[in-house]
Amino acid sequence: MKGYDVARPTSDRVKESLFNIIAGYLADAYVLDLYSGTGNLGIEALSRGARLAVFVDKSEKSTEVIKENLINTKLIDRGLIIKGEVYDVLKGFSKKEEKFDIIFLDPPYNEGLAENALKTIDREDLLTAEGIISAEIGADECIPFEIGTLKLVSHRKYGNTALAFFKKQ
To answer: CA 20 to 30 Å from 40, out of 49, 68, 102, 112?
Structure first.
């Protein structure tokens, strides 16, 4: 997949573990890939049976790479790319009453962005009742056990990376 100079991609080991954990959520899922970088998480979800993936990144270069990767994988018809600030885009989804089955969060580590995005996702009620959120964070990054109606259901470390999974309570 192209674009590894654009963003810090999820390592193969972490990605394999992530998709093993969420395998039961993928069939016909509506996916939101925030801070999507190269789009590798959303594209992998599409390749494993998700219905549609929405990619959000503020970088023009990233959105161009995502489009190219969707074209190269022949998944362009099942991807929607939005260039914009995550919080603004999330509020827009709320106004349209959009909800997602799987939400990937992969912001820069140790800047509090994952926690802030989780707060916004909860406040704007963007996760389906049975959905799951996967937040990729730094291994030493602290994240609350509960954020509004969201509850941490699993936390796994892989070297300098951690995956935190949230579901509605």
So the answer is: 112
Amino acid making up residue 86: V
Domains of the chain: 12-168 (3.40.50.150)
Helix H or strand E segment including 143: none
77 vs 24: CA distance, rounded Å: 23
Closest CA to 23 of 135, 102, 137, 106: 102
3-state helix, strand, coil in the chain (%, to 5): 35, 30, 35
Per-residue pLDDT reduced to its tens digit, 55-99: 999 999 999 999 999 999 999 999 999 999 999 999 999 888 899
Maximum distance among all alpha carbons in the chain?
39
- Is 164 buried (19+), middle (13-18) or exposed (0-12) by CB count in 10 A? buried
